Amino acid sequence: MKKLLTLLLILLSSVSLLACRKRANKQPFRANKIRIGILQYMEHNSLTEARRGFIEQLKTEGYKEGDNLKISYQNAQGDQSNLQVISEKLIEKNKLILAIATPAAQSLASLTSKTPILFTAVTDPLSADLVKSLKNPGGLVTGVSDQAPIAKQIDLLGQAVPHAKRVGLLYSSSERNSEIQIKQAQKQLLKAGYKVTKKTVTSTNDVQDAARSLMAKTDVIFVPTDNTLASTMPMLAELSLEKHVPIIGGSTDMVDAGGLLTYGCNYEQLGKQVAKQAVKILKGQDPARLPVQYPKQVDLHVNREMAKKLGIDLSKLSEEKK
Question: Interhelix angle for 150-160 vs 176-191, to 10°?
Answer without folding.
Answer: 50
